[in-house]
Design a protein that fits this description.
This protein is α/β, with parallel strands linked by helices. It has 14 helices and 22 strands. Helix 1 packs across helix 4 and helix 13 crosses helix 14.
Length: 456
């Protein structure tokens, strides 16, 4: 392990500031990114975290020292930064730690056209160069120019282009932006649309004074659910810190899983793009491929993670891709994911159907899922292999696309090692609550058995 420690993850760079990630490292990352991309211009944006200005400007200084003009996008959401990469056809660096607590920051990198940079597409090389450059002084005193660009209005116009404004009807919307970048983006994108939008915690504050900006955790939806019921809202929207993810809450304050949202949006996209290809990752509910098939589309199952999905989208020309974790990707958004575009697509669907969200979703509520259950084990990869051997011996239908997926007919589960921690991630789906809970216990007991750990 080099000077970069363990901040270089599978899809991005992330760590606590300043002990794991500081200005010195970010300066070297900027130099390494400039060298790797070979670009003449590099875009840099940041979220609202207190450390964002120092770290992003250190990155910019490193890139400028390599002769690359840096365009400062200021405070923006991640989907806005990736849009800018496509709009300007330039690589981009977005300083954010997404849903992580205030002590964290990080960098999401992409090539021109918002093409992903992950471990298989350049992050390993950038890490190696960063380690080499950490102790190398900047080359001379001359820096390439630092420019500034305002991209939010262009992004707002682009987001609105995904819907037909003529079909929209007045809807009451509550958006919990958790003091994250949604507080900036949501009002700008919703401006001029016939929606009554109330923003909860819209002040940009990277210390997250109200609750963590992690909407996949049910406890972080509490305030949104309460406000939806108090105001009689038609829908609640919960954004993460950098606003590239969104989770829905229906008018009854029932949370909507990422899989159900994927199915809902897939149906809409296939109505607009008949017979198109739609992607879904391997922990999405079975309802997703069923809905794709029912609407005449071609469904393709992928590994978890944006770099994999974007690559398959490029190879297949898929119109849309969804992840259970709340990331939704659009071909016409440079294959990047966007929370606000997804929110608009759902609001358009609700307008056209003239039905409450719960009624729209009712046909898709076919199964019960466990949510993601994390178990700490000494060697997650070895644990997955051991479980696979047990399942194989029992004649279970298996695949190893991403971790282990075991298909037991009327129920299935996926077991994957975390990319960042000594954790096993279990996602299980069954026909009803009772069988889901029973099978979760069975799988956790199996994990305990093969790892010699106490069951969770």
């Amino acid at each position: 392990m080099g000077a970069t420690g363990d901040v270089f993850k599978a899809y991005d760079i992330r760590g606590t500031v300043p002990d794991q990630l500081d200005a010195t490292m970010c300066r070297a990352i900027g130099r390494a990114t400039a060298r790797f991309t070979g670009a003449s211009r590099l875009l840099v944006g940041r979220d609202m975290r207190p450390s964002g200005v120092e770290l992003s400007m250190a990155f910019a200084e490193g890139a400028r020292a390599e002769g690359v003009t840096v365009v400062d996008l200021g405070m923006i959401s991640t989907d806005c930064a990736f849009f800018a990469s496509g709009f300007f056809d330039a690589p981009a660096a977005m300083f954010t730690a997404s849903h992580n607590p205030a002590a964290y920051n990080g960098v999401k990198l992409c090539l021109p056209g918002a093409r992903p940079i992950g471990r298989q597409t350049g992050l390993v090389e950038i890490e190696a160069m960063t380690n080499e450059l950490m102790s190398v002084p900047l080359p001379g005193d001359h820096l390439a120019p630092l420019e500034h660009a305002e991209i939010l209005e262009d992004f707002a116009d682009h987001a609105r282009s995904f819907i037909d404004r003529e079909v929209l009807r007045p809807l009451k919307v509550v958006a919990d932006t958790a003091n994250g970048m949604g507080g900036l983006v949501v009002p700008r994108v919703m401006a001029g649309l016939p929606f009554e939008v109330e923003v909860l915690y819209g002040d940009l504050d990277g210390t997250f004074p109200n609750h963590p900006a992690d909407p996949i955790q049910p406890e972080n939806l509490r305030d949104l659910k309460a406000r939806v019921l108090e105001t009689g809202a038609d829908v609640g929207l919960a954004f993460d810190g950098d606003a590239d993810r969104v989770f829905l809450v229906d008018e009854r304050a029932a949370p909507v899983s990422g899989s159900l949202t994927t199915a809902l949006v897939a149906a809409s996209m296939l109505e607009k793009h008949p017979h198109a290809t739609v992607l879904y990752n391997c922990i999405c509910s079975r309802v997703v491929p069923e809905v794709i098939d029912e609407h005449g589309g071609t469904g393709i199952r992928t590994r978890v993670g944006h770099s994999f999905i974007k690559q398959v989208m490029a190879e297949t020309d898929a119109v849309f891709g969804g992840e259970h974790s709340g990331h939704y990707y659009y071909r016409d958004n440079y294959r990047a994911d966007s929370g606000i575009i997804t929110a608009l697509v759902v609001l358009e669907l609700m307008s056209k159907a003239n039905q409450p969200l719960s009624a729209l979703l009712a046909p898709y509520r076919r199964y019960v899922d466990s949510g993601e259950i994390n178990t700490e084990v000494p060697d997650p990869a070895a644990a997955v292999d051991a479980v696979a051997r047990q399942e194989e011996a029992a004649g279970t239908r298996l695949d190893r696309l991403d971790g282990l997926t075991a298909d037991h007919g009327d129920w299935w589960y996926n077991l994957r090692p975390s990319n960042t921690e000594p954790l096993l991630r279990l996602n299980l789906e069954a026909a009803d609550e009772e069988s889901c809970a029973r099978h979760v216990r069975e799988v956790l007991d199996l994990v305990s058995q093969v790892t010699g750990t106490a069951g969770n």
